[in-house]
User: Fold this.
Amino acid sequence: MRVLVTGGMGYIGSHTCIQLLNAGHDPIIVDNLSNSKPLVLDRIQKITGRRPGFVLGDVCDKRFLINVLQEHKVESVIHFAGVKSVGESNSLPIKYYENNFIGSLRLIEAMQSANVTSLVFSSSATVYGDPASVPIKESFPIQPTNPYGRSKSMVEQFLQDFQHANSDWSITLLRYFNPIGAHDSGLVGEDPNGEPSNLVPYIAQVAFGKRYSLGIFGNDYDTPDGTGIRDYVHVVDLADGHLAALNKTINTPGTHVFNLGTGRGHSVLEILRAFEEHSKLKIPYSIKPRRQGDIAKCWANVADAHKILQWKATRSLATMIKDTWNWQVMNPNGYDS
Ligand code: NAD
Ligand code: UDP
Assistant:
């Protein structure tokens, strides 16, 4: 299948392109390289023996998207392109509503013009805000607490309204929990700009000696060891979830919503200890105040993804840590190494 992958040069998109190529699909990437590097294409080719199509451009540019969709005879779209930092979204809301909301709106307009009616969209567990209980079901209330989460929930709402008015379309909303890890080759992984804001890349950089110490944001949560619990899922499992969504829903009109996680939670201290065990290194840390907007516990109910997509995350926490560490050691400065 010819699949347009917006944001396909980024962390999750690059892993998804690898799995698409391995499964015999033809991904065409559209990316403005605002948070990724051209070298990703060489790495994907090294892993798969095939080079995905790549067109430099912005998803807010409708005319450009129509040309790409028509020229490449695209059959389906996976839409990753967007910006993703919760902290930054508080200070730069226009950037978030423009790239995430306007970008998705223009993409749908372009798809409609080109008569492409199947979309898989990258949403986030952030749309649930602070849930009343865990595990989180897809039917839980949508109550994001920051501009990033609101930009995602607005896209979700728009896509549902759009599908309602265009009943032949198939739209799948995938709500990711916490993607970590890297391809086991060590050639593709997460390459944060500057100081990482996410836990696992931060720990990897401390373990490698690039940063002095991990700050743990609070140890007084209502959890067994007091630190926050999240559902960490291997990025390659997540990539496979997109293939499952593409296969299962392309011919099933409707709006489909799935959590993608493991259904298990791990605390910050558990992640730190697992990293120490694997790397055989002592990782310095200190307890800091809670980070604004953080919640105590977040993990997924993944029953629908199991049952309907027949997708299940199979990689263990040990594998997630091993692959993160392998990527860090092989690429101390990310793709600039
Ligand atoms: P990423 O930043 O690594 O990848 C996003 C890619 O989109 C980058 O290559 C960037 O250059 C590109 N891009 C950004 N704005 C664009 C635009 N306007 N036009 C064209 N390209 C553009 O991020 P990621 O971690 O791979 O996340 C992919 C998607 O998944 C995002 O939509 C993100 O919000 C969502 N998501 C990510 C996480 C996570 O923890 N990584 C969790 C939940 C949801
Ligand atoms: N965290 C932390 N120190 C850091 C980064 C994150 O203690 O430097 C904690 C954070 O408070 C949360 C967990 O690690 O409990 C996961 O945070 P991350 O930013 O990776 O993901 P998200 O907040 O999106 O779940």
